[in-house]
Amino acid sequence: MSSLRPGNVGIVIVSHSPKIAEGAADMVRQMVGDAVPLAWTGGDVDGGLGTNVAGILAAIETAWSPAGVAILVDLGGAETNSEMAVEMLPEDRRARVLVCNAPVVEGAVIAATESSGGSSLAAVKRSAEEFYA
Amino acid sequence: MHDTNAHRATQIFAPLTASAVLVNPVGLHARPSVKLTQCAKGFTAKIEIALAADGPWTDAKSPVKVMRVKAPQGATLHFRISGPDGEAALTAMLALVHDGFGEA
Questions:
Q1: Confidence of residue A41 (pLDDT cuts 50, 70, 90)
Q2: Which strands make up the sheet holding A10-15, listed edge to edge?
Q3: By the CB < 8 Å criterion, does B44 face chain A?
Q4: Less Cβ around it within 10 Å: N or C end of chain B?
Q5: Which residues form a coiled coil (chain B) (predicted)?
Q6: pLDDT tens-digit profile of B10-45?
């Protein structure tokens, strides 16, 4: 996208359901715009409900930004697989990817809004997590 | 010393205030909240909103806090802005509200 600013924090959406992940990404694009690197992943490797580490790694790569990447997850496995994916990243990238403790849809929109204003990864995570504050 | 500097800062950038009526049908729901926050983040000035002239004031750069205001259509949105680019910020924020956040 021409308006993409590589300096903004990337957003990755991880859900057990590819439909939820894609739908949440659609909401981010429509509400926040194209100024934020964004990727989604959902489903297990057989196409069923679940998450998989390879898919999460690919999404992190797609949404990669020098400013870092914030990951929004839904339930249990999405979080543990995301943490596993972060562990598998090259060492210099590991510290620049954070899993947010926030609702996946609302958190993604809020995180992207924060990112679109040029905020840091820590600020993006903090803002998304305000939903549970 | 510190207090003197703080005082001087407020002298230079006395808060600007203004208000505008929300004209878009759904008020300050999710999408307008995002637009308002994005607009506010474009300025260095401190920007706050409230539903009454005497507050309580909400940080306009926080998307979660702005959504929690839940301002309905017809509500008067008050702005309190202070900073070096305060006037430009106030103009932009008022234009956004008058324009119904592009959806009126």
A1: very high
A2: A38-42, A10-15, A69-73, A97-100
A3: no
A4: N
A5: none
A6: 556 789 999 999 998 888 988 999 999 999 999 999
**Residue of chain A nearest B65, judged by CA positions:** A130
Mark yes or no for CB contact B62/A131 under 8 Å. no
Identify the three-state secondary structure at position A40.
strand
Q: Delimit the domains of chain B by residue range.
A: 2-102
Q: Count of CB contacts below 8 A, A vs B?
A: 32
- The answer to whether the Cβ–Cβ distance between A117 and B38 falls below 8 Å is yes
Closest-CA distance of chain B to residue A44, Å: 31
Q: Is the confidence at residue A1, as pLDDT, over 50?
A: no
Q: What's the mean pLDDT in A111-116? A: 96
Task: Summarize pLDDT for A55-80 with one digit per residue, the tens.
Answer: 999 999 999 999 999 999 999 899 99
Q: What is the CATH number of domain B2-102?
A: 3.30.1340.10
Active site residue B29: yes
Give the closest residue to B78 by CA, choosing from B101, B102, B60, B100. B60
Does A37 score more than 90 pLDDT? yes
Nearest CA in chain B to A129: B64
How high is the mean pLDDT of chain A?
93
**Helix A53-62 × helix A76-87 angle, to 10°:** 60
- Nearest beta carbon to residue B34 from set A109, A130, A131: A109
Domain A10-123 homologous superfamily, CATH: Phosphotransferase system, mannose-type IIA component (3.40.50.510)
Contact (CB, 8 A) for B16 and B87? yes
